[in-house]
Amino acid sequence: MLHSDIKSRPIYTQLEPDLSGSQHLLIVEGDTVLPGRLDSLAGTFAPVEEQLHTWLVGTQAGGLGLGKVWRLPDVADVVDAFACATRGYGIGDRLYVQGTEPFLWSVAKAAAIIGFSADQIHLHHAGSLRRRVWCTHCHTVTENVTTSIASCAGCHRHLLVRDHFSRRLGAFMGVMVDAEAPGEVPAVEENFA
Amino acid sequence: MSIAFKPEETFRGDYSYRNSDAAVLRFPFPFPEDRYMYSVNIEPHVRSGPSDVFLRPFDVDEHYIAECRDKAITLERDPGRCQVLPHMMMAQWDTLELLMESLSADYPEQFSLIKEGDDFGSRWTWINRPLGIEQSFIFGNAETLPCEPFEYITRQAQGDFAICDQRDDNLYMDAGMVTSQADWSLEFDVGMSFMEWHGPVPLAHQSGVFERALKYLLMLRLGQPVRRLNWTMSINPRLDTSPESYPEWGPDRASVTPDNAGQKVHLRVELQTLWRLPRSNAILFPIRCYLASLEDLARVPKWGARLHRVLSSLPPQLVEYKGLTRYLPAALEWLAQHDDGRELPVGTEAGITTLSPR
Fold it and tell me: What residues in A contact B188, CB-CB < 8 Å?
């Protein structure tokens, strides 16, 4: 569980079914599932199993009966699946997502585009603390950042990863660390492993 | 009222921006006491106060033309400084109406608004003499303007503007025109809730300042705008101190010495006002930036001494957050010569009506 006093970052909670929903979609980033944990999720979602679809993404983590199970190779396929959804999602739908923070927000953003409102979406952070970092200068997104300072994938500046989070971008802010004294880059720390 | 505009001055490159004596004397100096800490310092935005900048709801001063030009340069380089989420069209028209009505009523020599009716569908003609603009359009029909109404009118106004949509007992920053900001990114913050966009501010969250401010603002009423002053410091009179352009202006912070601090270091004061908008129920949040060098400020003896004391006693978290760390010692050394330790009266008034010659 991720504890943080970063005001702009949401508080992530354990997943449990919202019984006011009529259709439930659980999307799990496979390699964030610890051994045995999928069984426990299955137990948690047992009350809604008849109305549950589970999308397992990436590394396969056991094959359990969490409602109807669909396997997708990558988070990009989840985004595509939403974008091409032929069935309309409505106010009865509930979305539950488990994964790393970049995974959660990739899915949440794609769901918002097709009409999911914030209170229909439940996010649970699990696995690595790695961050997606948005460069304030060139606006490129750098994925899988685990260090306090990272090189921007776009402009290659050394970015200090600030504790300021945008849900719209699903990313933390990165600001050039040596703008005031070029070349003066502090020691890099592994903070978000 | 005629205004002696200085259309050629610049806020970048050679930084030829200067304050006249009158502009120094009307500077909205923000420190009533020798120490500074965050507070919910919100008061009614009435047409009076310790500085002339409070006399009109939207202050227009000698820098108007140059500042609008600097805004156009920034927008040309980075169009993302103006962003409006799609559900904000009603609030855009509210903003245009408020600004056009206020400016034309308070500055009739400079601005005129001719309306054939008050409602959507009426033909309006807007005349902006300092910028040489005359535009007829249909109020409520965005296609009759050269760009969307919020961008159109805020390009012709000094300072930044955000519009906060009110829903779920919260405020969301769902539109903005932000070209003279103190190091925050509209592109990053757009769509955020009140607590989210204030997330990085140190110390104030713990003392409950933001909860109280939000509660107050949610009850803001039409026709009863409020205001507060905020402040930071900038090296050179630069309006565009955005994080986007930080690689350009960051190195200036390393260029300050006790000898040049008087000219280089500027106090940057934001007059922030908040307005309930009539049709959208959103809140318009104009952030008007005033810049004065330490040299300017020290010409008012009370201000020079007080600024020295405030900056000497600033909590380290604020020094860091406001980005002063690298040059504060040089600024303090320069200011020390203007502080003889005498007791200063409480209040922000200059206390004098003329300045001694430079």
Answer: 134, 136, 164, 166, 169, 173
B243/A136 Cβ within 8 A: yes
CB contact under 8 A, A166 and B253: no
Pairing between β-strand B226-235 and β-strand B170-177 as defined by DSSP bridges:
unpaired
Q: Give B199's contacts in chain A (Cβ within 8 Å).
A: 6-9, 163-165
Annotation says B228 is catalytic: yes
Q: Looking at this predicted complex, what is its ipTM?
A: 0.87
Chain B residues touching residue A182 (CB < 8 angstroms): 251
Q: What residue in A sits closest to B85 (Cα-Cα)?
A: A168
- What chain A holds in terms of domains, given with CATH numbers, is 23-125 (3.40.50), 131-176 (no CATH)
Reduced DSSP (H G I as helix, E B as strand, rest coil) percent helix, strand, coil of chain A, to 5? 20, 30, 45
pTM of the model: 0.91
Q: What is the pLDDT of residues A128-175, one digit of tens each?
A: 899 999 999 999 999 999 999 999 999 999 999 999 999 889 999 999
- Least Cα distance to B245 among A18, B341, A108, B236 occurs for B236
Distance CA A19, CA A34 (A): 26
